[in-house]
Amino acid sequence: MKFNLESLCHNAVKIATQTGKDLRETRSSINPDFKSKGYNDFVTKFDLETETKLVKELKQILPEAGFIVEESSIQMENCEYCWIIDPIDGTTNFIHGLFPYAISIALMKHNIIVLGVVYEIGLDECFYAWENSSAMLNGNEINVSTVNRVADSLIATGFPYTNFSKIDKYMESLQYFMKQSHGLRRLGSAAVDLAYVACGRLDAFYEYDLKPWDVAAGTFIVQQAGGKNSDFSGGNNYLFGKEIISTNGVIHTEFLRETQYFLK
Q1: For 82-127, what is each residue's pLDDT tens digit?
Q2: Nearest in space to 205 (alpha carbons), one of 240, 242, 252
Q3: Distance (Å, rounded) from C-alpha 130 to C-alpha 23?
Q4: Which of 15, 68, 88, 103 is catalytic?
Q5: Which of 10, 56, 190, 246 is most buried, judging by how many CB atoms fall within 10 Å of its CB?
Q6: Has 214 been annotated as catalytic?
Q7: Which residues of 32-65 are buried (b: 16+ CB within 10 A; e: fewer)?
Q8: Which residue out of 51, 70, 71, 231 is catalytically annotated?
Q9: Cis omega (within 30 of 0) on the bond before 100?
Q10: Helices 252-263 and 167-180 sit at what angle, rounded to 10 degrees?
Q11: Could you tell me the end-to-end alpha-carbon distance of the chain, in angstroms, rounded to an integer?
Q12: Which one from 71, 203, 214, 243 is the annotated catalytic residue?
C-alpha cells in the first residue's frame, strides 16, 4: 500500500478539527446525557456519534485500514494499517462543560505508530506529526522542554478512576512529586497531557490503566518533538501495557527511577 503520510496526516487534521469544532458548538447549547460503562467511566451519545463520524471520514481517506476504537465493537486489528481513535478523550470534563477534552487519532502500521493527531477543542489547538516529520501545533513546529532536573519540572498525571490496585503507592508518588517538583497537574485528558509534554508546557507525565486510544497519538507526537516514552519498567510496552511515562527525554532516567520507587 503506497500513499503519502504527510498528505494523510493533513487530511486527518482537517477531519479532527472540523469534528471538534462541531462538537464544541453542540456542547455549548446542549447539556449531554450520559450513561456509565463502569464505576466513574462514562459515555455520552456524543462520544458514539463522534466516533461514527470519524470512522466514516477516515475510511474515505484510507479505505484499506482497520480500526481500534473506544466506544463501539469495531475492532479490525489485523490490517497492515489501523486507525486508533478516541472520539472524546476527557469525557468526564466534557459532561461537566470543563476543558480540556480532545479528539485523538493515530495510525498504526503493524505495531508501530506512524501518524498522530490530537485536537484540543477548548483552545482550538491541533497537535500532529507523521513518520519522519517534526511535531507541529497549528502549523508551527514544537519541541519538548529543556528542563534537566525533576526538581525544576512541571508534571501531569491522571487519577485512577476504575482500577485502584496501585492507589496507595500512587498517592505516595503524588505526595513525593508535589514536594520535589514545580507541581502536579491533573487535566483530565491523557491525550492533552501528552500534547503538552510535546510542546514544552509540561516536562513529564505518568499514569497507569490507560488504553491504546488514550495514548497512541500523544506518545507519537512526543517522540517526534524530541521526547521519550516508556512503561514503568523503562521498556516500550506503553501502548498496550496500561502504564506510561512520557518526558522531555532529558529527565527521563531520573523521573523513571523516582516513579519506579513507588509503582514497581
Answers
A1: 999 999 999 889 888 899 999 999 999 988 999 999 999 999 999 9
A2: 252
A3: 25
A4: 88
A5: 246
A6: yes
A7: bebeeeeeeebbbebbebbbebbbebbeebbeeb
A8: 70
A9: yes
A10: 140
A11: 41
A12: 214
Please give the Cα distance from 11 to 49 (Å, whole number).
Answer: 20
Single pTM value for the model: 0.93
Report residue 226 as a C-alpha cell: 524530541
Question: CB–CB of 171/199 below 8 Å?
Answer: no
**C-alpha grid cell, residue 5:** 503520510
Spot the catalytic one: 71, 89, 120, 203: 89
pLDDT in tens, 157-193: 998 777 788 889 999 999 999 999 999 999 999 999 9
Distances (CA, A) of 24 to 30, 158, 187, 261: 10, 23, 18, 41
Residues in the chain: 264
Q: Which three cell numbers stand for residue 196?
A: 503538552
Catalytic residue (choose from 86, 125, 193, 207): 86
List the grid coordinates of 81. Answer: 494499517
From residue 199, alpha-carbon distances to 113, 120, 256 in Å are 19, 13, 20
d(CA 116, CA 150): 27
